[in-house]
């Protein structure tokens, strides 16, 4: 498996990052029409780096992740363009057999709702052990020992006694830890966490995020953290990609974006976080509704909701303008936005 | 689970008492005198009828009759039939045949039904799916006696592929066609149930997780998907074992098999209630026990089920 991947891909050695999503397009062909879920998404993640992908439901953040994993339902999903390079070779061009071996070994994923994502009829230890048995050919007893070690590592109390318990016998936080244990079992280089804390209560959220950050530090993996919760990402992420209507509308190092966002949508998101010092005032909300993927607005997808809207926003799709260094904003008037946020 | 099993077993007692009482009471209330027609063309002499009545306790009140039945059953004494042949001899020879037939039918249901269901569920809308949907619809709309007489006439009488009727020893090869007939309805239903269950679970999150774990397609389907999809199917197959036994009445009648069903069939038409009562009571017991076993099995199949 490693031999195959270390060969340079057809044109894949340019960027050099561990995982590069390059101009990815994904659409869903439904009876109601073609839903353009992902429209030219580009991002990179390196070893030891945390990328937070931020966006509301339907922004294409999960679809991008599923395409990277190769677990997109096709049909109705269809990849209409772009590349996903992992260690330089394009995953989308690999035969299914090699693709499968990368799942779990190279790139692995934590899902949102661990209760439904874990198989209800098998013990959790068995499900973790399956990784070692199927990928590494480990014996049942060896694999089970490793499963207990992993459960210890994600700090499940009494791991040894709970290895034969079933998913429904655990609390939500513990279930998510098991999901994480399963995902990191084979020391993947990239871990994708798709809203890992959405289904959990706030104190448990913090614990899970702490655990993810710690595991990432220990093993130097690249982490893609998909979320719609700005509060979650501030502490752990290195950089942020904000998605809207299947596009990245802003990408920036995490502190730059928090300090002064360069896109009206990210600005709106930041302003809609409740703050103690603004207690008593009405909480800001971005007006309007998310775009209909079957019938995207012309020009900039955000224009119907944008306070900075001008005439050309309705007609011209804004490119991802370079703001500075690695920062980009897909807004015609990003300078104005950034000035407003700085003041 | 142990306590649950014991409680369920205790619940069987009142159910058995109620059903067997009804069977006893109703069978003897049926119109027509079972002894009147037993002497050929002439009416039976009163002496014979009275002797038979007193032998089988029909001159006593219903509750006393039922009490006799209970004590006889509990001591394993099934008595004699109207021809003075011990009922236990007749049934002892018949049970193995019926059980063999029922097991073959269950095997057909499980193998063919589940196999067809999985194939059609995995490729929904495909060629196999259409074939399965149409053929199960045909099977479901045909009553067992139609399927039975049709296959007997076609394979046995016209094509001579099999013997039209089964010999007294009922060897396995001669039971294949009767077992298929007996299984036909449940087989079709099993296929449909499996298909629905597969289609439903195919989009489940845990299947997506299994794919994301890098498992082979075969393992995702054969272990993760199938293990969950078969829970309702196995439950159905289990509960239907009881009805399979009673369904055997028609099938065994058609193919002249000397099983429990065949004996019951002839006993009903010959109005020999000394056989009808114990056999139907035993069928009730089989039905109740197989239901209990399914309920216990359900907890093994699905760990989320708790027995309080």
Automatic annotation (TrEMBL), chain A:
CDD domains the record matches: ABC_NikE_OppD_transporters
Residue ranges of every copy of the ABC transporter domain listed in the record: 19-270
Matches recorded under InterPro entries: AAA+_ATPase (IPR003593), ABC_Ni/Peptide_Import (IPR050388), ABC_transporter-like_ATP-bd (IPR003439), ABC_transporter-like_CS (IPR017871), Oligopep_ABC_C (IPR013563), P-loop_NTPase (IPR027417)
Record's keyword annotation contains Nuclease: no
Subcellular location(s) of the protein: Cell membrane
One Gene Ontology cellular component annotation held by this UniProt entry: plasma membrane
Gene3D superfamilies the UniProt entry points to: P-loop containing nucleotide triphosphate hydrolases
Record key words, sorted: ATP-binding, Cell membrane, Membrane, Nucleotide-binding, Transport
Gene Ontology terms: biological process: peptide transport
Family: Belongs to the ABC transporter superfamily.
Protein name: ABC transporter ATP-binding protein
GO molecular function terms attached to this record: ATP binding; ATP hydrolysis activity
Membrane topology designation: Peripheral membrane protein
Keyword Membrane belongs to the record: yes
Pfam families assigned: ABC_tran, oligo_HPY
Automatic annotation (TrEMBL), chain B:
Claim: Transmembrane is one of the keywords in the record: yes
Membrane topology: Multi-pass membrane protein
Main localisation: membrane
Keyword Hydrolase: no
Cellular compartments annotated: Cell membrane
Ranges annotated as spanning the membrane: 9-28, 97-119, 131-155, 275-301
Residues annotated as domain ABC transmembrane type-1: 95-294
CC terms in the record's Gene Ontology section: plasma membrane
One Pfam family named in its UniProt record: BPD_transp_1_N
InterPro entries: BPD_transp_1_N, MetI-like, MetI-like_sf
Single GO biological process annotation from the record: transmembrane transport
CDD domains, per database record: TM_PBP2 (cd06261)
SUPFAM superfamilies assigned to the protein according to its UniProt record, in alphabetical order: MetI-like (SSF161098)
UniProt KW keywords: Cell membrane, Membrane, Transmembrane, Transmembrane helix, Transport
Database matches in PANTHER family: DIPEPTIDE TRANSPORT SYSTEM PERMEASE PROTEIN DPPB-RELATED, DIPEPTIDE-TRANSPORT INTEGRAL MEMBRANE PROTEIN ABC TRANSPORTER DPPB-RELATED
Similarity-based family: Belongs to the binding-protein-dependent transport system permease family.
Name the record gives this protein: ABC transporter permease
């Amino acid at each position: 498996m490693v031999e195959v991947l270390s060969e340079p891909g057809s044109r894949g050695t340019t960027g050099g990052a561990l995982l590069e999503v390059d101009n990815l397009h994904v659409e869903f062909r439904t009876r109601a029409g073609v839903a353009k879920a992902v429209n030219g998404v580009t991002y990179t993640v390196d070893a030891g780096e945390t990328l937070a992908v931020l966006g509301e439901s339907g922004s294409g953040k999960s679809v991008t992740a599923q395409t990277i994993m190769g677990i997109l339902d096709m049909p109705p999903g269809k990849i209409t363009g772009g590349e996903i390079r992992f260690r330089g070779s394009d995953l989308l061009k690999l035969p299914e057999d090699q693709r499968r071996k990368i799942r779990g070994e190279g790139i692995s994923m934590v899902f949102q709702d661990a209760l439904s994502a874990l198989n209800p009829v098998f013990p959790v230890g068995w499900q973790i052990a399956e990784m070692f048995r199927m990928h590494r050919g480990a014996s049942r007893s060896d694999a089970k020992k490793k499963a207990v070690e992993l459960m210890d590592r994600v700090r499940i109390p009494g791991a040894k006694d709970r290895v034969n318990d079933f998913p429904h016998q655990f609390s939500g936080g513990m279930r998510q830890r098991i999901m994480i244990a399963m995902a990191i079992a084979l020391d993947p280089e990239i871990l994708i966490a798709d809203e890992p804390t959405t289904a959990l209560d706030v104190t448990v959220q913090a614990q899970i995020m702490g655990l993810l950050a710690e595991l990432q530090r220990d093993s130097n993996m690249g982490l893609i953290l998909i979320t719609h919760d700005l509060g979650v990402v501030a502490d752990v992420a290195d950089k942020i990609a904000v998605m809207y209507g299947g596009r990245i509308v802003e990408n920036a190092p995490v502190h730059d974006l928090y300090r002064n966002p360069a896109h009206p949508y990210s600005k709106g998101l930041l302003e809609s976080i409740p703050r103690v010092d603004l207690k008593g005032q009405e909480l800001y909300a971005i007006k309007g509704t998310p775009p209909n993927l079957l019938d995207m607005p012309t020009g900039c997808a955000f224009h119907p909701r944008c306070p900075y809207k001008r005439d050309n926003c309705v007609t011209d799709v804004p490119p991802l303008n370079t703001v500075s260094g690695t920062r980009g904003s897909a807004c015609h008037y990003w300078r104005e936005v950034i000035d407003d946020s700085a003041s | 689970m142990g306590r649950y099993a014991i409680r369920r077993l205790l619940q069987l007692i009142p159910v058995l008492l109620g059903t067997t009482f009804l069977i006893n009471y109703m069978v003897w209330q049926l119109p027509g005198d079972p002894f009147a027609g037993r002497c050929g063309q002439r009416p039976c002499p009163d002496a014979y009828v009275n002797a038979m009545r007193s032998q089988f306790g029909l001159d006593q009140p219903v509750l006393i009759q039922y009490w006799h039945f209970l004590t006889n059953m509990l001591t394993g004494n099934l008595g004699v039939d109207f021809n003075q042949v011990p009922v236990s001899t007749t049934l002892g020879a018949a049970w193995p045949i019926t059980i063999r037939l029922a097991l073959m039918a269950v095997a057909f249901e499980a193998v063919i039904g589940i196999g067809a269901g999985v194939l059609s569920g995995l490729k929904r809308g495909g060629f196999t799916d259409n074939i399965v949907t149409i053929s199960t619809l045909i099977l479901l709309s045909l009553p067992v006696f139609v399927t039975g007489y049709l296959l007997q006439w076609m394979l046995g009488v016209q094509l001579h592929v099999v013997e039209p009727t089964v010999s007294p020893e009922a060897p396995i090869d001669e039971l294949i066609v009767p077992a298929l007939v007996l299984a036909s309805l449940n087989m079709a239903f099993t296929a449909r149930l499996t298909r629905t269950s597969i289609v439903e679970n195919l989009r489940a999150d845990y299947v997506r997780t299994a794919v994301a774990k890098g498992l082979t397609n075969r393992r995702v389907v054969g272990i993760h998907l199938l293990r969950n999809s078969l829970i309702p199917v196995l439950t159905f197959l289990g509960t239907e074992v009881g009805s399979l036994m009673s369904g055997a009445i028609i099938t065994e009648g058609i193919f002249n098999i000397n099983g429990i069903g065949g004996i019951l069939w002839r006993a009903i038409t010959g109005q020999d209630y000394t056989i009808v009562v114990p056999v139907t009571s035993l069928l009730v017991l089989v039905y109740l026990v197989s239901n209990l076993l399914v309920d216990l099995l359900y907890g093994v199949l699905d760990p989320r089920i708790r027995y309080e």
